[in-house]
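Hi there. Long-time user, first ticket. I'm pasting a complex I've been working with (about 226 residues overall). I'd like to know whether the download I got is complete or cut off, because the file seemed smaller than I expected. Thanks.
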Amino acid sequence: GDSVTQMEGPVTLSEEAFLTINCTYTATGYPSLFWYVQYPGEGLQLLLKATKADDKGSNKGFEATYRKETTSFHLEKGSVQVSDSAVYFCAAHGYNNNDMRFGAGTRLTVKP
Amino acid sequence: SAVISQKPSRDICQRGTSLTIQCQVDSQVTMMFWYRQQPGQSLTLIATANQGSEATYESGFVIDKFPISRPNLTFSTLTVSNMSPEDSSIYLCSVEIAGVDTQYFGPGTRLTVL
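Hi, the file is complete. Here it is re-exported in full:
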């Protein structure tokens, strides 16, 4: 079945460092791909999405490119801030309406 | 997108009791879902809440333990029945709008069972 694998955390970075969180998926067909962010004590917020190969999703300085050849959707940010400290979830949405699969989540801590 | 609210935001309950969580959306949506997020874990889909009919449960979840109602296109409830400490989790409601394959999440209900 479909699945999402993302880089295990926790990840600790200094402010202004470069961030990469790896995410790969297995799916039949071409799912839509998402990154969600969960700040402490809150629900999930949609960070960005991409619906087809070579699409790039971007938001708040974060980017991820849908790579069909490597079945990947890695999250990147050029310069992280303390306020980016959160848990990040990669997700894939297949053809069925209830077929949303989530990765395990990666906890990011950014230190001043 | 959609604005989703959940009540209560958190609760501490005694073993053996039940808690009903409400999810309200500011617009009519086709799909509503309930997830569980155990401490430090990812999300697990409990069920799809179907308007006017019985919910569709995922493997490992049953109606007797997690009864769900969805009387209309903007509201759903999830009940956690006969609770035990293992039910301590965050329970999240999400919605999907017709034609948009994106799920939007409520703020979650943080449940602690003593």
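A couple of notes from our side: The radius of gyration of chain B is 13 Å. Chain B has a mean pLDDT of 93.
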